[in-house]
Specification:
The chain is of the alpha+beta class and 133 residues long. The protein has one domain. Helices cover 20% and strands 26% of the residues. The chain contains three helices and four strands. The chain has helices at residues 2-18, 53-56, 100-104, and strands spanning 64-71, 80-86, 108-116, 122-132. The radius of gyration is 19 Å and the shape is globular. The model is unreliable at 1-19 (pLDDT under 50).
Length: 133
């Protein structure tokens, strides 16, 4: 019995070792001059980003566990709130005439923190509370 249990545990670790996280860059070389997904001067900003399945490059069974933004400027103060919602849609564009509440009503909240602060520019990683499939 002990050998069977050890074999099952070893097999479980081997199988879980096959899954791997692969970083995917979207929008290489692109910049934005006015709006950002990060909190602004007044402590808030709302933005929506639409990425196609081919840009993300994950197949069936894949999941998203985090997102990173390359920040060109820093935030002032502390305690800025950041919420990140994800949703899978079939539309090729976002209907910007709908309210933020409507836009996020079926979305999954994957990140929520009031401790956003970055004293330097560069990559800022947001690790989700649960992966999004």
């Amino acid at each position: 019995m002990k050998r069977l249990l050890l074999f099952l545990v070893a097999t479980m670790f081997a199988i879980s070792g096959w899954s791997q996280t692969v970083p995917i860059a979207i929008g290489t070389g692109t910049t934005t001059a006015s709006t950002s997904a990060m909190p602004g001067l007044y402590g808030y900003n709302i933005s929506a980003h639409l990425y196609s399945a081919s840009e993300i490059g994950i197949g069936l069974g894949g999941s998203i566990e985090s997102i990173e933004y390359n920040l060109s400027s820093v935030t002032t103060g502390t305690g800025k709130r950041v919420k990140i919602y994800l949703i899978e849609i079939t539309d090729a564009s976002i209907n910007l005439n709908q309210s933020w509440t409507t836009l996020t009503s079926n979305a999954t909240l994957v990140y929520d923190s009031t401790s956003f602060y970055t004293p330097s520019s560069g990559w800022k990683k947001f690790i989700f509370s649960s992966s999004f499939s």
